[in-house]
Amino acid sequence: MHVARLSLTDFRNYRSAELSFEPGATVIVGRNGQGKTNLVEAVGYLATLGSHRVSNDQALIRAGADAAVVRAVLASGGREVLLELQLNRQGANRARVNRAAAKPRDLPRYAHSVLFAPEDLAIVRGEPSVRRRLLDELLVQRIPRLAGVMADYDRVLKQRNSLLKSARARGLAAAQLPTLDIWDERLVQFGAEIIDRRLELVAELRSPLAAAYRSIVDADHAPELRPVLSIDGADPDDEGADGTTAPLAAGVSDAAAGATSPDRLPTSDRFAAALATLRRKELERGVTLAGPHRDDLLLLLNGLPAKGYASHGESWSFALALRLASAELLRRDSTTGDPVLVLDDVFAELDRLRRERLAAAIGGYEQVLITAAVLEDVPEPLAHRVVRIEAGVVVDGGAAAGEPGAASEPAREPQPEASGV
Q1: Annotation-wise, does 243 bind a ligand?
Q2: Using CA atoms, how far apart are residues 366 and 337, in angstroms rounded to an integer?
């Protein structure tokens, strides 16, 4: 699959932009702050329904505009699909597929992409929420219906937390909250599926992660992934200086790792038992203390937590290898070809040898979109097509490196008003 055309209206710093892309590598060049990352951010949003830079959609809408519109024509095997997404300041976002009304959460069924950016260093060094998001975004692309399961879980979690906070404020005991059992059942129903799917995903990521790490570093540092589950007693919020959680360091690593041996109780039973055990503490604190919203993913290099022990270069390589492993899984699953691989300002952080190794590792993908402040940072084999951006305007696009002339503007799709998506 590749992005054949991309159209933005009032997205970030773009009042309007139209671009055509070809399969293979395209480098988007511009000084910092000109808008090159905004272009690939739009591509990533269609696949993950989120930005890799901000958690709030409002930041994606151009100042002074009521809505932003992203349109993309995706091509695969001689067929094309038009995706349209409208992000609104007021009201729910809207989407269309081939001009037919759709839900935004339907878009990842068609758009598959993997984006690596400097912010991804937080996968290794940041909070558990960053690693949960890595897994969940990949899950939604592989199993789009899970977007609905995750939304249902979040809704139930908010309702349950609201009830716990109210009970705490009023000094109520569990026996005085008959509806809490109902919310527990719903939380377990949705949460157990999310946990199980994450565990399956982690198991599948291990082999391609090791291969991707070796391809970048040319060394075997034994990168490993170990789920840390709150329903088994781990508390990612109680983290030691070395990056381990307290229960994990205390010797319950097998449970926290989420092993799936046949003699273990099903996830739903363990989740329900954890809620029952924690109920008194939850009422005291007014918050749900177990579930996929409190889980983590421990990253290990040579048997040690990467968060506490890995160097900057090792952390960077680990995060990049995780993204490449994610792309490999999507490639294996897909009936529409490779995911679009996006590298946002990555090569500036690498030395010459690792630039060359990364270029070799990604050379077989159908489409690679690369952003760079300086074209010379990008290995020559990837710099055949170049798009230049200045202050939210595409000033030159699609010509081979060193060749004159800008690409012709693609034929415009009919442009309805922002409210027309």
Answers
A1: no
A2: 8
